Structure formats: structure tokens, C-alpha cells
């Protein structure tokens, strides 16, 4: 049986969902999955994010390829709320040892955001299996290659700055996964949720080409 961590790596692309409401987040998530992106990170900048996580977990209960997690986890309280809603992983823009412990105690993974070698090593020592490079657009794909030189065992996932033009370069430089955010929902207002599916397919194709 594939572990959640291995499934996340296999799926590779994380849809970072910042909905205007829980219903909006659910629709963007579902249409991302239809487009082939099966790691869903519902951020807690979304109103009623826990409701969205719980509903998505129920909807995909019989689909082991779809993994539902929570992002923008800033406090221990939010971590506990997300876990209670059914989140299978937690993501933060920063590293917090207390959130790491909550995740560890719940037997799920925590992917903290780091931007320096010191932060990355601290997160690894704390038990993080994948470290989010944030902000990815500032650091750039070559940062992964530079870090992998002295620390070849680290698993790095950029979030922010991943585009159709550079997603393949991120992978070639050693990213074990990537987070794609605002690009997925960029045309919902003008073209509806079907645009999310189309854009998701474009990201999957760009990765494979």
C-alpha cells in the first residue's frame, strides 16, 4: 500500500487552493482533480477552510490517489482544527516546531516553508520529510541544485513562482514536488470553473513534455 507521502510525491503537483469561500475552494479543488492535479492543499486563508477539507475528504473517500491537506497553518490551534477536519498533511509558510509535534502526534506529515540553509536543516532535524521552498519565485530553480550539493538527502518543494514556463525546470533541478496556486483559479471569474480543469491539464502536460 502506497503511503500518503509517496502518493504525494507520485502526484507531484500540489494545487494550493485559496478560495473566496468554502464552496469556491471545493469547486476549484474538484476541477483541479479533473485536470489531473490530485494533491489538494486547502489554505486557511479560505473562509471555513475546515468545512471544505471535510467535504473534500468525504467526496474522495474512495479515491486513494487524491490527497487532501491544509495550508497556511500558522498556529497549533489551526493545525489541530485541520487535523480534526481530516487533513492528511499540513503546510506552513514558515517552520514551527510546535506544529511539527502536533503533526507527528497525529501521524501525518508537516511541510514547513523555508528560505535558507539554516531553516532547511532545522526543519529536517525537526522531522520534516518535505520542505517547502518559499517564496519559490524569489529563490528560483537553481536554489534546489545548490542546496542538494551539500545536502543531497533533502526533499524540496517550491511554492510560489511555479509557472507553465518553468515547472519542468524545477523538476530537472531536483524538486520532489511543486505547489501551484493562483494560476489555477486565475480565470474562474471570466471563464468559470472549467478553466481550472483546462489550466490543470496544461500544468500536467508541461511537466510531462
UniProtKB/TrEMBL annotation:
Pathway: Carbohydrate acid metabolism
EC class name: lyase
Signal peptide, first to last residue: none
Highest taxon, organism lineage: Bacteria
Record-listed E.C. numbers: 4.1.2.14, 4.1.3.16
Cited Pfam families: Aldolase
Any one GO molecular function term: 2-dehydro-3-deoxy-phosphogluconate aldolase activity
Keyword terms: Carbohydrate metabolism, Lyase
CDD domains: KDPG_aldolase (cd00452)
Family designation: Belongs to the KHG/KDPG aldolase family.
Subunit (UniProt): Homotrimer.
NCBIfam families xrefs: eda
Descriptive protein name: 2-dehydro-3-deoxyphosphogluconate aldolase/4-hydroxy-2-oxoglutarate aldolase
Organism for this UniProt entry: Granulicatella adiacens ATCC 49175
Amino acid at each position: 500500500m502506497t503511503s500518503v507521502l509517496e502518493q504525494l510525491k507520485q502526484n507531484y503537483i500540489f494545487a494550493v487552493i485559496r478560495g473566496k469561500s468554502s464552496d469556491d475552494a471545493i469547486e476549484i479543488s474538484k476541477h483541479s482533480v479533473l485536470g489531473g492535479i490530485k494533491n489538494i492543499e486547502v489554505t486557511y486563508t479560505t473562509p471555513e477552510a475546515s468545512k471544505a477539507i471535510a467535504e473534500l475528504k468525504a467526496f474522495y473517500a474512495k479515491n486513494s490517489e487524491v490527497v487532501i491537506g491544509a495550508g497556511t497553518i500558522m498556529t497549533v490551534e489551526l493545525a489541530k482544527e485541520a487535523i480534526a477536519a481530516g487533513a492528511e498533511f499540513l503546510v506552513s509558510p514558515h517552520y514551527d516546531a510546535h506544529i511539527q509535534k502536533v503533526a507527528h502526534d497525529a501521524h501525518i506529515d508537516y511541510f514547513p516553508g523555508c528560505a535558507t540553509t539554516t531553516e532547511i536543516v532545522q526543519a529536517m532535524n525537526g522531522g520534516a520529510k518535505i520542505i517547502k521552498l518559499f517564496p519559490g519565485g524569489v529563490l528560483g530553480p537553481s536554489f534546489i541544485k545548490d542546496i542538494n550539493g551539500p545536502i543531497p538527502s533533502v526533499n524540496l518543494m517550491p511554492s510560489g513562482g511555479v509557472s507553465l514556463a518553468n515547472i519542468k525546470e524545477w523538476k530537472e533541478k531536483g524538486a520532489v514536488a511543486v505547489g501551484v496556486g493562483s494560476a489555477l483559479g486565475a480565470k474562474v471569474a471570466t471563464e468559470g470553473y472549467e478553466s481550472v480543469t483546462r489550466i490543470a491539464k496544461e500544468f500536467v502536460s508541461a511537466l510531462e513534455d
